[in-house]
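Continuing the batch. This is chain 6 of the set; chains 1 through 5 are on the previous pages. Same settings as before, nothing changed between runs. Recording input and output for traceability.
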Amino acid sequence: MQWKLTRGKWRPRLLDFVSSLDDAVVKSASEKAFQSLPDVSKAVDELTVLKGVGPATASAVLAAFSPHLTPFMSDEAMEAALGNSKDYSLKQYLKFVDKLQMKAKELSSEGDSFTPSDVERALWSYAVGQSSSPDSNQEPKTKPSRSSKRKRKN
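Output for chain 6:
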């Protein structure tokens, strides 16, 4: 859960909910979810019975277990793939899974092997990189100005 919170909006109560869950209940729900795959919808349903676990949190668990099938539902990748990152419903996640599975398959046809989770991480990395880069309206300095050159010591 802590990993998920570092990649998205901080929700402190969510950590409290999940921390209060009984280990046996979590294990049972997880096993049912994993056994439900490749039916992503059923797998998400099995995990969302846990208090504090919605489709986005379920996607984090499923992506760790089955990256070849299920990507994490990051805001950045959702925005890039679907144009909307604020709809955390199962319906939206299934659209997201379908898009990223298709893109992974398309990329893999060129000889390399890509998973939906690979595609999600690439989209997330690009978005985070863009948001932390300098203002794109400024032209980068390719040549230092004369006054900024260092003088040689003789």
